[in-house]
Every structure is written in C-alpha cells, then in structure tokens.
Sequence to fold (382 residues):
Amino acid sequence: MAENENGQEKTEEPSEKRLREAREKGQIARSRELGSLALTAGSAIVFLVMGGQMLSSLAAMMRQSFILSRNEIFDPATMFHRLALMFSDGFLALLPLFIATVVLAFASTLLVGGWNFSTQALAPQLNRLNPLSGLKRMFSMKSLVELLKTLAKFGLIMAISFGLFTALEKDFVGLGLMSLHPALARAGELLAWSFLGLSSGLLIVALIDVPFQLYEYKKGLRMTRQELIDEYKEMEGKPEIKQKIRQLQRQMSQRRMMEAVPTADVIITNPTHFAVALKYQPKGHDAPLVVAKGADEMALTIRKIALAHHVPLFESPQLARSLFAHVEIDQPIPSGLYTAVAQVLAYIFQLRTAEGSTASPERPEPVVPDEFAANIDGRPQG
Fold:
C-alpha cells in the first residue's frame, strides 16, 4: 500500500475534488502506446487508400526535378526556384499523411484522460532539477515497470517485423523486376500491410498499457482516511463556523419573522408558552398563512410586538399548539384546521366591525381534529 509522509496507508479512492485539482495541475492519465498505435494504424490506412498515388506523385516530382537544361544548371536563381518547387510538390504529395498524423495525434490523447489545458503545468518546477529526486525516479518501481514494458514491446515488434519480412520477402524482392509505376503502387501496398501488421502488436501493448496507466493514475491520487476527513471538513466548513452560520441564519429568520408580526390579523396564544401569528389575504392565498411563531421567550416577544401594534390576541391552547407543531413559517395552514382558524378569523373581523358598538360577537371555542392534536410541549401527538 502507498503511504503518505505521516506513514498512513492511502487506501481510499480519490475524491472528485482531488481529481479536479490534479487536472488543474496537468496531472492526467496518458498512454503513449495508444498514441503510437493510432499513428501507426492511421498511417497504414492512409497508405492503403492513397499510398500508390502519393508515391507516384513523389516519383513524378523527382523525375521532373532532374530534367534540367544547361542554362538552368548554371543559373542559381533557377536552381533555388526548382528546389522550392520540389519541396512544395513533395509537401502536397504527402499532405494527406501529415493531416492524418496530426489528427490522430490529437485524437489519441482525448481517448485517455480527455482534453486538458493547464497553465500550472507550464510553470517551471525547480524540484525536477533536484538530482536526488531524479535518481529516485530512475530507480523506482515505476521506472522498472516502464523498462520491462519497453523491452517487451521491443521484443514483440521485432518478432512481428521478422514474421512480416519472412512472409513478404518474395514480394519485396519482386519489386525490382517490375516497372516503376506498378512497383511504386505495390511498394505502397506492402508498406501499408506492414504497418497494419505492426499495429496488431501495438494493439496488444495498448490494451495492456491503457488499463495500467488508468490504474497507476488513480493509485497515485489515492488518499488516506484522514485526508478524506480533512477534505470533507474543508468543503463543509469547520463545525464552529457552521454553527456560527446557522446562528446568524436563525437571527435573520427571527428578524424577518418579527417584522411580519405587525402585519398579522391575529395572534393565537397558549396563552404563555406558544404564540402563532396568522395572516389572511383572500386575493393572494386560498388559506391563511403562518407569518410568525415562537415558544417561551419568542412567544413573549411576539405578544409584545402584537400589543404594541394593536394586533388582537386570541387564546386557544389546543389551536396554538397544533399550529406551532404542524405549520412552518410562511406556509398555509392545512385543510384540517380550516374550520378552527376560520372561526377565529371571523370572530376577529366581527370585533373590528363592532368597534364602538354595544353589541359584541360571541367568542368561539375552536376544536382541533385529533390528527392535528399536539402535546403540551408543542410536538405532534403519536
């Protein structure tokens, strides 16, 4: 097992944050063998499709370049012009191969690790200049594995090359007995099949190397359990900071709640332990809303603010406990409490209408259904 500097074993898979930071530093899984396979196989396919044409174009270029008159031979300007024309024709003849090589070189890097650009990877790292670190990398287990892999690949490619040469020996020798154009076309075909044969060996190497590189990449980023805990704390925040944030959130919520008390239509009380402020807007909501609620000291504060702003208080212990237990702030009351709350609101509205009058409405005694009953401490029963 890999260990960190504290001696703890890195047994945990890397987190998303660790993987993201590694990509930002330019550390991604790469397989050079996959790139070699893509370039070799792509070149073989290009040669199969256009090999004869490219070689014929190069032959025509060479033939044309060596047809010179006496005057052209002794004219330096003509010679430079011919040389530039030869390079231009040669480049155009091999352009399909160049394009395929560039495209495959980029595409092969996207297959493992994907596209990644990191400015941190471009920054100079002085620790790489440390000769001790260099010696440690040279004699590490990873370097030994790379050496064995290179030797195995070399042996495999040599064996395939020897087999191809043995199988195609007569074809290569027969090229000298053919005329120029058929020989060039046949040579392109033989080169293409040779490259495909070599690609089969590289395919075996790539199928082994790609999983190995992915495994080594993940293994190098493994974390200890303590590192996971520290990262979680860093992402989630320290407990004391989280507690402070929750405290501030509660204070802000209470401040908003106290600001909503003067706008309430009625405060239903326990009478001392609970206080729930209700507001009813027929045009805005289908049911009354609980705009504030509190217990003990908070209930006392709600009652004080309500009295200061002439918001009526209605004492109903069962209804106050039920609303406190079953309805959150800024939420409408449940349908099971419609009747009880409607009786209270109707009574309050009648009191407002009867102000200055000798007659007063009869005070209701709202009944709370059993499923909305609450204990004396404000918790739902059951």
Observations:
- The longest strand covers residues 289-295.
- Strands lie at 266-269, 274-279, 289-295, 313-315, 331-332.
- The radius of gyration is 42 Å.
